[in-house]
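Sequence in, structure out. Go.
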Amino acid sequence: MTPRTPSILVINGPNLNLLGTREPDVYGTATLDDVVRLASDTARERGCAVRAVQSNHEGGIIDAIHAARTTTDGIVINAGAYTHTSIAIRDALAGVGLPVVEVHISNVHRREPFRHTSYISGVADAVIVGAGIDGYRLAVDHLAGRLTAAVPDAAQALEK
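Output:
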């Protein structure tokens, strides 16, 4: 029997397509491609696969979450500003019943007060803030550890 490779969906919300050029003093100079590469490399090292999506539209993010229900084992999400405004994204995450790690590149708690509230944190298994794009590596590593423990064949396949 061929072992099944656990799959992680990495979702990036509005304006994250501008990473590297948008407010580099806040978000750094790494690009979204750098984020995806880091997440993919981390997942591969841990015996998982990554699929990444970015959308500036709330409905696009919700559609990706809904589709993940049957194609994915866990979700890493940086919903950008929708973190602080979208009950719909929160409900979608809760509705699919997958493990979720919320990521923010900047330390949102050191920023404007409206960024201190997250609708996603209440349904996330872990929250990583202020670690720069390394937060994605930490998030994927955390999920991969959970997922490969749940699917031991994936970890064993790496050893062969």
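Check: The chain has six helices and five strands. The CA atoms of residues 122 and 158 lie 34 Å apart.
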